[in-house]
Amino acid sequence: VPSDVQAACRDTVVTQELLKEGFHRDLLVKVELGEDAGGCAVAARTRLPAGIYVDPYELAALQQHNLTKALLIPAVSDLEAPEYLATPVVLLLYLEAEPRCSRCFHGSIPVHARYRRPAEGTEGALLILESPEVLLCCCHGDLAAECWEPAEVGAPCLARNISPCQWHSPTHRPVHEELVLEVPVGLREHSSLVCALTLLTTLLCAGLILSATCRHGHFS
């Protein structure tokens, strides 16, 4: 990007944060635009790696109560699949305007880590979450051509009083830091112990069920 274009186009600042701990987190995305959005819809598009997923049923419940707005591509995925059998998905998170800042937007959505193969000598694995791409959907046509370009996004525009229109992405994309998520993994050296305890627990539960059936069951 030429230096004069970079000077004319004020940087859009994107920050993301993972709240909570463990396998179940909340992804918080904040965006500060380089210019006033002026009624445009603002969204953040990011690629979720195979080790992270969004529950579509949980998302539908949240959207029903207007707690978040998002689109998953593809919309359906195997929620029970481990990380090594899953595929990445694209998340389009619609952002809400901050009440006291005309250029500031935010959005959050629950994300979940998938189970991974047991590892040897470590109790944690690292997942890299790429920085989101900021998208604008405007119908008034006031975006500067040197700062914003049409983007290929097959998603509706959910801004108030705006019919579906063309999404745009910034022409100047400064480098953002990636977000690193550490998730717990099982230790491979514990596999024999886990299998033995699982087998004993299964036999104990089966014995209790059989005992209760013999004492309280009615047999003809």
What topology emerges from the helices and strands here?
Elements: H1 3-8, E1 13-19, E2 24-32, E3 41-48, E4 52-53, H2 56-64, E5 70-73, E6 89-94, E7 96-98, E8 101-113, E9 124-129, E10 133-137, E11 148-150, E12 167-170, E13 179-184, H3 191-216
Write out key terms for the chains shown.
2 domains; 3 helices; alpha+beta; 35% strand; single chain; 220 residues; endoplasmic reticulum; elongated; disordered N terminus; six-stranded antiparallel beta sheet; five-stranded antiparallel beta sheet; Phosphatidylinositol-glycan biosynthesis class X protein
Plain-language structure description:
- It is a single chain.
- By secondary structure, the protein is α+β, with helices and mostly antiparallel strands.
- The chain has 2 domains: 13-186; 188-219.
- 19% of the residues lie in helices and 35% in strands.
- It has 3 helices and 13 strands.
- The strands form 3 sheets. Strands 5-6-3-10-12-11 form a 6-stranded antiparallel β-sheet, covered by helices on one side. Strands 1, 2, 4, 7 and 8 form a 5-stranded antiparallel β-sheet that branches. Strands 9-13 form a two-stranded antiparallel sheet.
- Strand 7 (96-98) and strand 8 (101-113) form a beta hairpin.
- 21% of the residues are buried.
- Residues 1-7 have low confidence and may be disordered.
